[in-house]
Here is the input.
Amino acid sequence: MGAKIPLKLERWIKIIGAGLALLVTILLGLSIWNERELAREKAFTETRDLARVYKVYTEQMLTNLDQILQLVVAIEANPSLANARQDVGALIELRKATTPIPIEITLLDDKGRIRHKTMDGKSPDDLSSRDYFILHRDGLVDGLHITSILPFINTKGRFFFALTRKLTDRSGQFIGVALVLVDCENFSTAYGQRLAEPNVSVGLLYSTGEVMSRAPYVPAVIGAKPEPAVRFAQGPERESSFIDRSPVDGIERVISHAKLDGFPLNVAVTLRYEKVFAPWRQKALQGVAIWITVMLGIGVVVRQLLGLLTAERHAQRQLEYTQARAKVGGWIWDLASDKLTWTDETFHIFGLTPGDLLWRSAYFNMVHPDDLPRLEAKLKEVVESKESYRIEYRVRHADGEWRHIASHGEVIQDEGGKAVRLQGVLQDVTEQHRAEERIAELLDLNQRTILAAPVGVSVYRASGQCILANQAMAGIVGASVEQLQRQNFLAIESWQRSGMKEAALRVLENGDTQEIEVHTKSSFGQEIWLACRCVRFTSGGNYHLLLMAEDISEKRKAEAELRLAASVYTNTIEGIVITDSYGIILSVNPAFTEITGYQAEEAIGKTPRILKSDHHDEDFYKAMWKILSETGSWQGEIWNRRKNGEAFLEWQNITAIKDFEGTPVRYVAVFNDVTELRQKDEHIKHQAYHDALTGLPNRLLLQDRLDHALEVVQRDRSHLAVLFLDLDRFKTINDSLGHDVGDLLL
Here is the structure.
């Protein structure tokens, strides 16, 4: 057994190498994903902070513009400020010059006519129909009002928006409207002067989501209403960050919105998505390079370790045996000294300090009293038989809890074949037992369902041991539930022979669900057809196998009978027609086509009336259907007509197929062509009762007719006359001229 230990360890090293590679892959993947999330969050933070900066900057600019309006309103409302009112134009020009963006100021009288403006060029004199004028005139807006974008009349493709306030005299009477006009392109330029990053854009949007300004400036987007901007404008949030595709250039961007305080406007800052993730992509490429390097390193290390194991296979048998079973403790029992040697992992399993020496008697004191006799008997048996073994028993842990231990061992012999020590491994399977107990509890809750189920169910550990089986499974294989639970599928010959063992091991290894059909004889001598489904599940951290089996022996038998019936249906020389309850043909066999000349596709969907001849009247068919309805069947001779118009006589048997309520759902007609047989019978009968030469009735027919006539006479009490004709000297002709002449004369 020691020679096999390095092979198992080799397998574990490969598994650990693959696990380490998977772990590195997961960690690097998580790291790259985390870096991506950090880059994404950083982009959100940058755009959000920049949006806040532009929010404050925009509020300051708009406040500055509003102060100009408030100055004009104050001057208009105070007639005592005559000098100031006379110099209002100069004051406006002064504040206009100190504003960071170019603006124009216009004053309207109470009729909506322009009475002062700083803007050159043509403009309408009467603005009384404008929304902002009506809002102020009708008292709907008393404070600051900001319009949505408006087109320049004399310049196509240019837009502006206005800040407006109502003008009143000292008594509060409406005397006009003051406007500050802001060119959208100039406002965008002011925004653009603060942009230091070429991949960033900033925009001003109205409370409806309408774009009023954008830097860099794009005239085509002014007035657009991007859907995300509309959603943000309509929502309650003051700030929002998300990733979306820009409606301006179609480029995916990180976008942050912020609503201005005191103004019905929003600020939007965008950053190109690809710019945000450019550093991350660089790090991702570096991560991939690191991953490739680590994978190569793991491969080299695994290969070197496997080489070392091959070289040291015989020298480190016990160490390799223990290492091959990760998280499994190793032990050695020297039979001569009765001393036990444990690996550190074994001490950890029992909650003891590594390094302490133990004697067998001390260890046996830790074993549960109910399990100790069984353990001692097993060890004695193993020493005598020198075979490997596996046993489970309970041991008291250092914390006082009873733990379930699974122990595997082998006997080591000296050169003379004498057993000198036992060595092996053990594992704490307490959680596995608890999981199995939980499974048993759950299955117990559903015991009625399981017992009533027609499908067999059994559960196995990864070691092959059956831990649960229902009565249906026991009935299928011809055993008791107790017998099944004592089985290990690794040792069942029928599993090996039928391929079920290979399928089960493949499921336990790969986790793939397997569905197979097997025809075998169970270990209890019962021959069965099974449809099996094998599923792997995890309980207590360990793999288990769930087997669901259905006995399909009757199904296979029925399928064979169906195939036989189909073969008979196809190959019989008798024609067969199947119709529904309304007489519509559903199926015909090849013999039907051979007899009638109608192909299947010509007959299906029609009724048997396509074969109807003129030999029978309606009373015949009524009588036939009456018998069929009363008895469920009819048989007899019937004349039908082939596709070519030829009439033929058939012997037909019609049977009604009924449902469970006795209602006919199908009719099956089986027939064969008896026309030729009838013709042969008629010919034979004619030859028997007629002369072969003349075709005239012979003596037999005369006797038959005479007997019949005598019966009629006797029954009717009438008379009968017989006329006899004879040819005189006919014998002379035959004798003198020959029989040929005599036949010619006749």
Observations:
- Residues 1-5, 319-324 have pLDDT under 50 and may be disordered.
- The chain is about 45% helix and 25% strand.
- Residues 67 and 690 are 140 Å apart (CA to CA).
- The longest helix spans residues 5-77.
